[in-house]
Amino acid sequence: MEGKAAAPAAGTVLNALATHRGSAFAIDEYTTATVELTTETEGVTGEVAGAPDADTRLIERCVEYVIDAHGGPQHVGVPSVSGGHVRTESDVPMASGLKSSSAAANATVMATLDALDATDRMSREDMARLGVMAARDVGVTATGAFDDASASMLGGVTVTDNDDDTVLARETVDWDVLVWTPPERSFSADADMNRCRLVAPVARLVEDLALDGDYQRAMTVNGLAFCAALGFDSDPVLDALPHVEGVSLSGTGPSFTAVGDREALEAVRDAWDDRPGRTLLTTTQTEGTQTA
Ligand SMILES: Nc1ncnc2c1ncn2[C@@H]1O[C@H](COP(=O)(O)OP(=O)(O)OP(=O)(O)O)[C@@H](O)[C@H]1O
Ligand SMILES: O=C(O)C1=C[C@@H](O)[C@@H](O)[C@H](O)C1
User: Fold this and answer.
1) Complex ipTM, two decimals?
2) I need a labelling partner for 126 at 20 to 30 A (CA). Which of 136, 241, 243, 250 fits?
3) CB atoms closer than 10 angstroms to residue 77
4) pTM here?
């Protein structure tokens, strides 16, 4: 029994760390999960291609949850599924603000369902919720990050309430996207929630703008507020503002994303290329997570 799925990374419109309401958009960069299930051995093992020391608890827990729900004798007969192995391969740098954890969880949940021939037994929103449950269990998230998970699962841009894991709004968007990823990492679980709560009034304004569909201005206000709250230099935002309306720190950093038309983003790239790390010109993604 083998299944495979690919989930897109995402960028931030509104960081949920202040109010637990967030907004994110899917981008055309992927994490792929391959899952093999067995009826012979007990337990689930995980592997991240090219990163032998990576923490695999999130993807293992995702497989376990899907087996618990859909791998029993009533679904697959006897013997039922008892274990498996999951391997991820990713273009999305880990812990860089581009929602690597949500992409890994979504790809793994859908790949496990694919291995069970059961992708039609769950709604896509519920698949994202299962990944969020696993992320909460293993402690890789601050709020559950349903904003990131839903954007990566459904594609387009979503606005969510991460306390009850509901989608408040979803739209498809067609933007070019510039990403700058510095060499450092920044784990969401280590973010200073107390400092983020200080910018809650600004986060509520960003939410209003996002729910009005004014995503790009929302993003920029978010970027300035969360650079201050999370201790990141806001100069990358200022570099971009002569050229685009939408630019922000993504997730809990250190990556930044800018959105707009390609010519404007090429001008931003000239400025961001002087910084250490890598820049990438890509686009938004509207299909979300898919079997591969
Ligand atoms: N390709 C992957 N395969 C397996 N697990 C992964 C993968 N990518 C990320 N993870 C898990 O997610 C954790 C990083 O989560 P974290 O939320 O800090 O990063 P992020 O999602 O990239 O950041 P942000 O939420 O700011 O965008 C890793 O420690 C690992 O547990
Ligand atoms: O771990 C979390 O709860 C989050 C992490 C970041 O990606 C944020 O951008 C997101 O809104 C919530």
Assistant:
1) 0.97
2) 250
3) 9
4) 0.97
